[in-house]
Amino acid sequence: MHARHAMILGTGKYLPQRRVTAAEMDQMLHVKDGWVLKKSDVHTRYFIKDETASEMGAKAAYAALEAAGLTFADIDCIVCTSGTMEQPIPCTAALIQRAMGQQQSGVPAFDINSTCLSFVAALDVMSYLIDAGRYRRILLVSTEIASIGLNWSHKESAALFGDGAAAVVIGRSGEGSPSRIVHAAMQTFSEGAEMSEIRGGGTKQHPREHRADNADDYLFSMDGSAIFKLAARKLPQFVDEMMKAAGTSMSEIKLVIPHQGSAMAMRLIQKKLAIRDEQMMYITPDHGNTIAASIPMGLHEAIRLQKINRGDRVLLLGTSAGVSLGGVIFDY
């Protein structure tokens, strides 16, 4: 595959005001003390207090611009890469632009949604436009509010999630730069489409006609065991094909940044793909599953903690509703 001259220029993160401990989640879910921590390995997660998704995204975006040494005037596209929407219309990217106080800017804003893989899909797609010169610098913003849509009667899935936002500025890498997108891939197996879903809210089950009788259809539903089994079958071959196409191997990967779906998913990925402990970026314990924001949050933390340096090879990897598998190999 054609390597793309695109690079990470800066990252930012925003966590909501309300800090929720595992002990508090035990009380909220009406389970015995220690149950949430044992099931999820999430010590702390954050839920919104009065923030909106666009406000969180705007704060993460400005943090990423600051890290990149840029201003909004340097940006010529905003892409929201979230699995949840602030509202059905307009796209969340437009609302982020407004929340940034840039509603008169004319900077194009649109969404790319592949649920938990939204950031990975957007990085793949938009890096081609950077490489082609269509855009100079792009803001990719993942902002997720999981807490509003949790079904508290589904305790095992409700125990996993947190809210938050992350943003990444990408731009063209210059001649001689070690930074580039090496390879990306995605596969979808819609046999698993019903394994992770919110059935209501679209045209099939519009709230006007269905909400009163089917309230649970408007809440998140997930068969974690079924997704786990499907991923266990599909991921090894998927990653092996990625590595071959990229002309690389897991031993050459400095850091793997997976979607932080659950502690069980992290253990599966590490075991099935023979990832060493020092190669694994694991932020689940103090973030929870932040849907599409989890991968750019992991990237932000990896840079902040100096786990990767310029030129290091990184693998972004995850699964999403659909069921889809996706990954990006890049040299930071």
| Radius of gyration over all CA atoms, rounded | 19 Å
Mean pLDDT: 93
Q: CATH topology of the largest domain, anyone? A: Peroxisomal Thiolase, Chain A, domain 1
* Topology order in helix (H) and strand (E) letters: EEHHEHEHEHEHEEEHEHEHHEE
- Spatially, the strands of the biggest sheet line up as 1-7-6-4-5
Question: What is the share of helical residues?
Answer: 25-40%
Main features:
332 residues, Peroxisomal Thiolase, Chain A, domain 1, 5-stranded mixed beta sheet, 4-stranded mixed beta sheet, 10 helices
Word description of this protein:
The mean pLDDT is 93. The strands form four sheets. This protein has a five-stranded mixed beta sheet with strand order 1-7-6-4-5, sandwiched between helices. It has two domains: 6-172, 3-Layer(aba) Sandwich (Peroxisomal Thiolase, Chain A, domain 1), CATH 3.40.47; 180-331, 3-Layer(aba) Sandwich (Peroxisomal Thiolase, Chain A, domain 1), CATH 3.40.47. It is globular, with a radius of gyration of 19 Å. The chain is of the alpha/beta class and 332 residues long. The protein starts with 5 loop residues before the first strand and ends with a strand. 31% of the residues lie in helices and 22% in strands.
Brief write-up:
This protein has 332 residues and is an alpha/beta fold. It is built from ten helices and 13 strands.
